Amino acid sequence: MGVSGSGKSTVAKGLSTVLGWEFAEGDAFHPEANVAKMRSGTPLTDEDRWPWLGAIGEWISAKEARGESAVVTCSECGAPLDAQDALAQAGPGARTGPGTRRLTALLAARAGR
């Protein structure tokens, strides 16, 4: 999970290749309504994002139930603050990064920055 342009897909594809795990691009999980909205330039709302996060979480859970490992990317630009918790609830194997809001808060709290 991370901001757009941070190299998520590049790193994830490399990691999945080295480990021999399946790779999935998080944007592929968006429902068609979200895709249409984004194509028209309309920002997604938190309500729009929940089905998307749910689909990613279900995919992670299904992989875990079959004993399979995988790498999936997920943009966090504008995502709900608790999106990481929602994805982590998919299963104990789900791992997420700190996300934009958390990174911004951490950097803001650093002295002399």
Topology:
Layout lengths: L7 H12 L2 E3 L7 H8 L6 H20 L4 E3 L10 H6 L11 H10 L4
Parallel strand pairs: 1-2
Explain this structure.
- The protein is mainly alpha-helical.
- It has a single domain (8-109), classed as 3-Layer(aba) Sandwich (Rossmann fold).
- 50% of the residues lie in helices and 5% in strands.
- A two-stranded parallel ribbon has the order 1-2.
- The longest helix is centred in the middle third of the chain and has 20 residues, at 46-65.
- The two termini are 24 Å apart.
Main features:
single chain, 113 residues, mainly alpha, Rossmann fold, two-stranded parallel ribbon, 5 helices, 2 strands, 5% strand, globular
Summarize the structure.
The chain has 113 residues and is mainly α.
Our Rg estimate from Cα atoms comes to: 15 Å
Total domain units: 1
The coarse silhouette is: globular
> What CATH architecture do you see?
3-Layer(aba) Sandwich
What order do the helices and strands follow? HEHHEHH
The helicity comes to 40-55%
CATH class: Alpha Beta
Class from secondary-structure proportions: mainly alpha
**Unreliable stretches covering 5 or more consecutive residues:** none
CATH topology annotation: Rossmann fold
CATH superfamily: P-loop containing nucleotide triphosphate hydrolases
The whole-number mean of residue pLDDT values reads: 78
